[in-house]
Design the sequence.
């Protein structure tokens, strides 16, 4: 029998953080021990070996995972990550957060996540295609439009999803658009998906700033990460009139107290592959970006960047989690004591899975929505989720993360109860 203590005694890292957050929620909800154990443990995990014949003829071997945390409310759903830092515990945590995100936003899915331990920057497109096809073949018995639907995450993109969809479809003998989301528009992708996570981040960032009396036009912001989430978050914040004074990527950080010219910066990144070296900016220390005196901080890169050892240095009044798991529970407590408002990942970055859901629905209907339709439904869902979570936080007198996790966990537990999976 699994002991609760064992589930909480995993090494420091995302899984420890996710289980600690779950434990806080199940305690507050007054759930019995068994409910915590059930929800702390993934329903299914697959680990695969992926051999790759490199372009130079040598052979490399990678490890990949797909973790399906929960199916109680529908098929599992969640991104696929290519990163040298991928490990099974990280994927387990990310899968659990997907379950809460889908439940909180009431999209009819459980949670999953996948990962391959590879640095995609070191491989050609042809090599990445072979890795994706082999990984897809290996996990194909457990994915599908009614089972588990991958989408892009760190290091993957719409091209990866096209290869995944094609590999799965070839095995089935017909085109299965609904097996993934975040696909290219020409292959059943949805208008608005590529920018959806960032749009959602900015919807809640503006609402959160308003709740603290900060207007977008008077605000300053720093964004960590300039990939699929950070880049468009910076763009939409700038379009809302906010001065984005610093951004970063894996290569470093840049800043300009007067506000970076985001369209020009995007051109620079397209041309060079990094924010570093942008002419109209000063280089800065990448970690220092987290501690700038700004109104809004958007961590949009990786987990665990705000921790016990640095959270007391954060000066941003509002932190909106574009990334999954950027704040550890210890950092949460420090930020709460310092009256920083933290909008949790499962709310803040849910725009991506919302529009993934719209993409899946469109594939089922074989009927495509306009970008206005997609974006107005996205805005409506994000705004009402923000209102529900902030009201619940006020009612319970708890931080937004606790309120959001309680709402989500309650929904998932209810689904289990109603299905009769536990008495
Ligand atoms: N894509 C989506 O729809 C969603 C993504 N998320 C989450 O958002 C986060 C970012 O994902 P996404 O934008 O898709 O991924 P991308 O791979 O597109 O971008 C990641 C960005 O983070 C940068 N980065 C990576 N490591 C570091 C680091 N240690 N310090 C600073 N920057 C770093 C990368 O730098 P470089 O450009 O140099 O590689 C890149 O700019 C992840 O936590 C992901 O799980 C959440 C919901 C949906
Ligand atoms: O779009 C999706 O299905 C999942 C996106 C994702 O991985 C996430 O929200 O963390």
Sequence:
């Amino acid at each position: 029998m699994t002991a609760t203590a064992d589930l909480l005694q995993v090494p420091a890292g995302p899984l420890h953080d996710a289980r600690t957050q779950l434990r806080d929620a199940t305690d507050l909800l007054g759930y019995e021990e068994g409910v915590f154990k059930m929800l702390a443990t993934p329903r299914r995990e697959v680990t695969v070996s992926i051999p790759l014949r490199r372009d130079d003829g040598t052979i490399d071997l990678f490890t990949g995972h797909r973790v399906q945390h929960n199916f109680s409310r529908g098929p599992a759903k969640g991104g696929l990550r290519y990163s040298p830092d991928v490990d099974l515990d990280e994927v387990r945590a990310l899968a659990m957060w997907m379950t809460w995100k889908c439940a909180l936003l009431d999209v009819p899915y459980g949670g999953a996540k996948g990962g391959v331990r590879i640095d995609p920057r070191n491989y050609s497109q042809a090599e990445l295609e072979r890795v994706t096809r082999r990984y897809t073949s290996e996990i194909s018995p457990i994915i599908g439009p009614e089972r588990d639907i991958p989408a892009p995450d760190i290091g993957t993109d719409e091209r990866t999803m096209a290869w995944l969809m094609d590999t799965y479809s070839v095995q089935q003998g017909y085109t299965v658009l609904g097996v993934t989301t975040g696909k290219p528009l020409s292959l059943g992708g949805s208008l608005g998906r590529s920018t959806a996570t960032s749009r959602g981040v900015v919807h809640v960032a503006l609402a959160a700033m308003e709740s603290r009396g900060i207007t977008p036009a008077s605000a300053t912001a720093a964004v960590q990460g300039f990939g699929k989430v950070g880049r468009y978050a910076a763009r939409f914040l700038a379009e809302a009139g906010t001065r984005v004074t610093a951004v970063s990527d894996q290569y470093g950080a840049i800043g300009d107290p007067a506000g970076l010219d985001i369209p020009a910066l995007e051109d620079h990144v397209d041309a060079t592959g990094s924010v570093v070296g942008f002419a109209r900016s000063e280089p800065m220390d990448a970690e220092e970006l987290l501690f700038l005196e700004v109104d809004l901080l958007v961590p949009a890169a990786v987990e665990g960047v705000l921790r016990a050892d640095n959270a007391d240095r954060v000066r941003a009044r509002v932190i909106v989690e574009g990334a999954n798991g950027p704040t550890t529970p210890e950092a949460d407590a420090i930020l709460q004591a310092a009256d920083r408002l933290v909008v949790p990942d499962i709310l803040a970055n849910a725009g991506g899975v919302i529009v993934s859901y719209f993409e899946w629905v469109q594939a089922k209907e074989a009927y495509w929505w306009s970008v206005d339709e997609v974006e107005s439904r996205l805005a409506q869902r994000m705004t009402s989720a923000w209102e529900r979570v902030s009201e619940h936080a006020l009612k319970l007198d708890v931080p937004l993360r606790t309120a959001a996790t309680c709402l989500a966990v309650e929904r998932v537990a209810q689904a289990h109860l109603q299905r009769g999976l536990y008495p």
Q: What stands out?
A: The mean pLDDT is 97. The pocket of 2-oxoglutaric acid (ligand 2) is lined by residues 77-79, 98, 101, 151, 153, 181-182, 324, 349, 352-353, 356 (CB under 6 Å). The domain at 42-175 is CATH 3.40.50.10860 (Rossmann fold).
